[in-house]
Design a protein that fits this description.
By secondary structure, the chain is mainly alpha-helical. Helix content is 76%, strand content 0%. The protein contains 14 helices and no strands. The longest helix is centred in the middle third of the chain and has 25 residues.
Amino acid sequence: MLGRIMRFFVSSSMFLALNGALVVVFADSLYGYPTSLAMFLAAFLATFSVYCLNKATDQKEDAINKPEVKLKNSVYYVVPSVTAMVISLALGLTISILTLLVLVAPFIIGFVYSVPAAKSIPRLKEIVGVKSFVVASSWAITGAFLPVTMQLTNPYKIMLVFIYIFCQLFVNTTIFDVLDTRGDSVSGVKTIPVAIGKRKTQVLALIMNSTLLIWLLYCSVYGFFISFLPALAFGVFYGYFIIWHFFKQGCKRLHAELMVDGEWLPIVFLMKIILR
């Protein structure tokens, strides 16, 4: 029973949406801001909308990568996606015009990423390496910039938060790309592991994750986010763990969706409960 509930929570994109909202909570904590309920819901709905749209456009590869998930008509995903988008943008508008503009960014990126503008023009996800960059950038834009639409902060803090989120999401995306290599290859999605192979992709993920060790050193030397460094360091070493674990053969996709997509749960828990 619990397994079915978790599978539904994951397959419906609600788990991803929760973690998309937690990225905003993460940034709020680093900036020293309280989290607005309206902004939390707007981020949740924005993430939910983008990934529902992605499900509608990725049915060919999902049929191979997720055989346990029953495919549904595209309308089943498009209607919730559009509804969530409208509510998210409406919530953003109640906060500020800047909030609305930041929320619009992932919708535009998600649309161009998933939907071809013309038959002769490829989707962004069909260009080698672009998928990981686009996904990581979209999450980093939402996380780093949404909180500062309500209250400005040190530009260096914004840059540092953007880099941390970007690196974490780049690693996460490459892990799923490895798990989805077969379906992506068949459907023409040229992810990094499709282009360069699993082993080189693992090295790239390790290099990206290791840049955050330099990030941690920089923050400790210059006094950024000092009280939260244990949680931030946990996130980095958790990255090494999931790279080691999910680049092995035979890993279950549900475990990856819970452990990789869900990494923001323990990070935010540490920041809010233990290190407050």
